[in-house]
UniProtKB/TrEMBL annotation, chains A, B:
<dbReference type="InterPro" id="IPR036390">
    <property type="entry name" value="WH_DNA-bd_sf"/>
</dbReference>
<dbReference type="InterPro" id="IPR054105">
    <property type="entry name" value="WHD_NrtR"/>
</dbReference>
<dbReference type="InterPro" id="IPR000086">
    <property type="entry name" value="NUDIX_hydrolase_dom"/>
</dbReference>
<dbReference type="Pfam" id="PF21906">
    <property type="entry name" value="WHD_NrtR"/>
</dbReference>
<feature type="domain" description="Nudix hydrolase">
    <location>
        <begin position="13"/>
        <end position="144"/>
    </location>
</feature>
<dbReference type="GO" id="GO:0016787">
    <property type="term" value="F:hydrolase activity"/>
</dbReference>
<keyword id="KW-0378">Hydrolase</keyword>
<protein>
    <submittedName>
        <fullName>NUDIX hydrolase</fullName>
    </submittedName>
</protein>
<dbReference type="InterPro" id="IPR036388">
    <property type="entry name" value="WH-like_DNA-bd_sf"/>
</dbReference>
<dbReference type="InterPro" id="IPR015797">
    <property type="entry name" value="NUDIX_hydrolase-like_dom_sf"/>
</dbReference>
<dbReference type="Pfam" id="PF00293">
    <property type="entry name" value="NUDIX"/>
</dbReference>
DNA sequence: GCAAAAGTGTTATGGATACACCCATGA
DNA sequence: TCATGGGTGTATCCATAACACTTTTGC
């Protein structure tokens, strides 16, 4: 029993929770799971679980998220570690929170391991969550507001090809402010960060907008020249 | 033995390491300890240790730092959690790294618990450290470079009263760039963040400069009005 | 008087802001 | 032809950067 099961043994005092943001129709969403087993069955929470001895903390975060929600192949980044003594009522558990930004439409959700439901919630309509998960989510939202202004991470929330107005609406939803259309356009265009696709919107009841995409290699080139993304 | 010792029991899979930055004579330093016991005796490392069951992770960071170095009453902030499987060779240990900025002259160092030496090292003359501590330090230095430009945390590295030139030299040391004297002066003055003391430098072989201090409440007032610190 | 740092002034440039306006398209 | 959003033009203002200059002090 010993060595053979070592790889499945988890570190009991340490868990992972993930804050996954999505965006659609000018609104920001967060991914939540409903516990399907144990004393917390029926309660909503952030996707999360325990770390195995033979996987890195980063790897555990991906595994847990995919197992519970079917969301996969995204970029997860550490948010913060939450270590208050009483944060988990049953025993001493410290949690490492991760966050990610995804394009909501790309994922087919599926309630997996010990989860009875998975759903996107409007960021302004989140129910009471288990443990300190509402605090973790708030922290993640603040972090996102800050980070989106200094790094071009917002594009992960959009389809691969998007219009300038979509980006503007994304920033307005996250920062909870209003932006000037023409000034915002110009600022983005002048960065030389976005690549114009030779394509326009289709089936819209107004003049079709040009589509752009974010290109990682263009960004890296700019970075090498000392470019600093600022909105 | 059981309940009575519960409070002293540590979480084995989780440790803490601290990156403490100091500043003096236009140079940036980091605080290191030499292990005094066990198989790593004689090796330099970041101050660090294990978390007890009845203390928060934040509290553990303060306790460990003070026990090992005598540095106390400072503001520690989480840096990042390092969770690679092989980062600690003897067993699986995930570490939560913290960092802080202090005024080097304010502290009398003292090698405490299981430590044979404590010393400030010039950031550019750091020896090979135990485990992944050089990586943690590098990460901390990058983080500091970034953060110091968006939040007024650099003042923690200076004496309570300081000159504008001292701040300039602090930024030059951390960012590893050169700044224009008069433009930097003007920028800081125009923020209305610094409080001018009615006092000047003494015993200097040149015109004595006016002394300023950073006032937390002034900063909070500015924040409420929408002020954003940017250097 | 000289060295060294304090502190002021000036000008060119370019980005930020506000807002008026025209364009293209489907209903 | 109207509503909707796409997209351009422009005048004002203000921050930045480069750099020349004057002031104060100890030696």
């Amino acid at each position: 029993m010993e060595n053979s099961n070592f790889s499945e043994k988890v570190i009991e005092a340490l868990s992972i929770d993930t804050v996954i943001f999505g965006f659609e129709a000018s609104k920001l969403f967060v991914l939540l799971v409903k516990h399907g087993e144990g004393k917390y069955a029926g309660k909503w929470a952030l996707p999360g679980g325990f770390i195995k001895y033979n996987e890195s903390v980063d790897d555990a975060a991906y595994r847990i998220l995919t197992d519970q929600t079917a969301v996969r192949d995204i970029f997860l980044e550490e948010l913060k570690t939450f270590g208050e003594v009483q944060r988990y009522p049953d025993s001493r558990v410290i949690t490492v929170a991760y966050y990610a930004l995804v394009n909501k439409q790309n994922f087919e959700l599926n309630a997996g391991a010990s989860v009875s439901d998975v759903r996107w919630f409007d960021i302004h309509e989140v129910p009471h969550l288990l443990f300190d998960h509402n605090d973790i989510l708030s922290y993640g939202f603040s972090h996102l507001k800050h980070k989106i202004q200094h790094e071009p991470i917002g594009f992960n929330l959009l389809p691969r090809k998007f219009t300038l107005l979509q980006i503007k609406e994304l920033y307005e939803a996250i920062l909870e402010i209003e932006l000037d259309k023409s000034n915002f356009r110009r600022k983005l265009i002048k960065m030389n960060l976005l690549v114009a696709c030779n394509e326009k919107q289709k089936d819209v009841a107004h003049r079709a907008a040009r589509l752009y995409r974010f290109d990682e290699s263009v960004y890296n080139n700019l970075l090498r020249k000392g470019f600093v993304f600022e909105v």
